[in-house]
Amino acid sequence: MACMDTPDKVQAALYLVQNGINAYAVCERFANELIGYKERFNVEAEILGSTSIKETASGAIIGDQPDQTTFEDPSPKIIN
């Protein structure tokens, strides 16, 4: 379980699924780099993305938090 807010963390999620380990990512900033990963890399394991999670006194809140991405953020293509 980790976020995918950097290209290296996306590579780590791909490494896990290529080794049969399911991955869960609470931030999907670079998840678009993995579109079609099952077919491209012939894997069965899942990469499950989610929105942000916040701990509260009464439990977890999934989502309900503003996210911001700007066009100035570098988004290099990392997987061919």
* Mean model confidence by pLDDT: 79
Helical run tally:
2
Strand order of the largest sheet: 1-2
Number of domains: 1
The biggest beta sheet is recorded as:
2 strands, parallel
Notes on the structure:
This protein is an alpha+beta fold. The protein has one domain (7-62). Helices cover 21% and strands 18% of the residues. It contains two helices and four strands. The longest helix is centred in the first third of the chain and has 12 residues, at 7-18. It is globular. Mean pLDDT is 79; it is low at 76-80.
Provide key terms for this protein:
80 residues, alpha+beta, two-stranded parallel sheet, two-stranded antiparallel sheet, disordered C terminus
